[in-house]
Amino acid sequence: MLILICIILTLASQSLADLSVNNYADSAYPGRCVLDVGHSVILLNMAQSYKFDNLPCTQVFCIGDGWGMLNTCDREKPPDDCRYTEILDWDAPYPECCKRRVVCD
């Protein structure tokens, strides 16, 4: 289990993402990550993920025992004299959905 978590954290840190590890445990569902998304409750087993529909390119990946990684796109600045515009493909799987169009002056 520990080796799997280390591999996942290493891969995630090399992507286009910011991440945080959070506790999504609920005593009613032992060992699972429990996400209350307003209209329903999402139950994740270890190694399952959920991509939020109402947040751009944000997902939770359950790493076990109620702990999960919240992944969002990084806050990297664009190149000098350039700016980011729209997300290229909102519906793409994570982290490909982080890619944005760059416009340079």
Automatic annotation (TrEMBL):
- Where in the cell? Secreted
**What keyword terms does UniProt attach to this protein?**
Secreted, Signal
The keyword Signal belongs to this UniProt entry's keyword annotation? yes
Q: Which InterPro entries match?
A: SVWC_dom (IPR029277), Vago-like (IPR053308)
Q: Which organism is it from?
A: Drosophila willistoni
Q: What is this protein called?
A: Single domain-containing protein
Q: Which Gene Ontology terms of cellular component type are present?
A: extracellular region
Q: Which residues form the signal peptide?
A: 1-17
Question: Where does the Single domain lie?
Answer: 33-104
- Main subcellular location: secreted
Q: One Pfam annotation, family name?
A: SVWC
